[in-house]
Amino acid sequence: MAKEIPDLVAEARAGTGKGAARQSRRNGKVPGIVYGDHKDPIALEFDFNKLLAKLRAGRFMSTLWNLKVEGHEDVRVICRGVQKDVVKDLPIHIDFMRLRRTSKVKLFIPVEFINEEECPGLKKGGTLVTVRNEVEMIVTAGDIPDHLTVDLAGHEVGESIHINDVKLPAGAKPTIDRNFVIANIAAPSALRSSDDEGGEGEEAEAAAEE
Question: Is the pTM here over 0.70, yes or no?
Answer without folding.
Answer: no
